[in-house]
Amino acid sequence: MAKKTAQAQMCPEAYRARLAGVELVSITLESFTLKTDRSRLGEGMKLSVKHKVGYEPLDNGSVTLSIAYDLTATRSNKREAAVTLSAAFSVVLDSDEPLMEAFLNIFTKVNLPVNTWPYFRELAQNMLQRAGLPPITLPFWRS
Prior knowledge:
Blueprint: H1 12-19, E1 22-36, E2 45-57, E3 63-75, E4 81-95, H2 101-109, H3 111-130
Antiparallel strand pairs: 1-4, 2-3, 3-4
């Protein structure tokens, strides 16, 4: 059995109070790839989107967060991907006080995807159309 490590907790009220002192500096696209196998395109395509997050505190009290999205489209009865699209974004936050791990753990799960998902949705729709593929509309982010 794997040993679980304890993570610092933060109550919702403390999180909201701390969030009031945080400002968004930038959201930047860091990398993007699109691969297609047109022979695998067909009816009933199944979309799957996964994401990974991380963060790195900076010396000046700011923090750089990262979020990478991976979209895969496959036929419902096949495992091979017809389309894979990956995009990584960098988000810089500025704060009036250092951002603690408990705050960043919540922020990367709740606020980071909510704020970057519209950028990914637009990028995916735009790039698939530019590749000559049918446009898609990805759903709302649901946490």
